[in-house]
Design brief:
The chain is of the alpha+beta class. The chain has one domain. The chain contains 4 helices and 4 strands; from the N terminus they run E-H-H-E-E-E-H-H. Strand 2 and strand 3 form a beta hairpin. The longest helix is centred in the last third of the chain and has 15 residues.
Length: 135
Amino acid sequence: MWSISTTWRSPLMQSDKTFIHSLESRRFFIRTGSTDFRWGIDMLAACAVATNSDAALSGAVFVFCSKSRNQLRFLFWEGNGWWLLTRKILTHRYIWPQQNDDKISREALFEQVRSLAADPGEYRTKALRACSQLS
């Protein structure tokens, strides 16, 4: 049985910001190529720590994309545990580099991810506009 508490607030939540807005100021590490989304939180955390253990344990956000490019996973450390957030879009696909030297610019990719973290409701419009400019 589930119980709902309206008084609990994560330390990441500030009175003037939502949980997602708290991700805006963090460092982002984007894993190129597709990630096996059968991997759970432990395997993704091991991947993040292997990439940069200092950043992983200081709250950086590690972003993974599914093979079908319609899902993103955001992994980050808070206090004494990992958060794993999944975002799935029902139409269209994320533009995602397959290798570090792919033609999509670093800035465009980070803008796509930061737009999602800043305002998920506006993300689709911004992403579609950015996609049309890149192709």
